[in-house]
Amino acid sequence: xKATLTATALLVLLAGLPGCSKVSEKLNQFSREWDxxxxxxxxxxxGGEAVKTYDIGRSxxxxxxxxxxxxxxxxxxxxxxxxxxxxxVESK
Length: 92
Hints:
Layout: H1 2-15, H2 21-35, E1 39-44, E2 50-57, E3 62-66, E4 69-76, E5 79-83, E6 86-91
Antiparallel strand pairs: 1-2, 1-6, 3-4, 4-5
């Protein structure tokens, strides 16, 4: 019980640090690990052939838009991946 209370207090303290994007990303990553299922992302060429498959664990796949169109991004094996290719996300 004491460890849970200490961990919660630490998270609240870290969340309150303004301007620390690294801390914010670590908190987001921590929360994703608690509530998500393991996933794989498969990228496809315009012809429909599978190009690459990533095992992203419990990471989140985010869809975003810029002035040129939409794209997705995610973290796989500690690396940031961003693409506008066709994709399928599968839960394990």
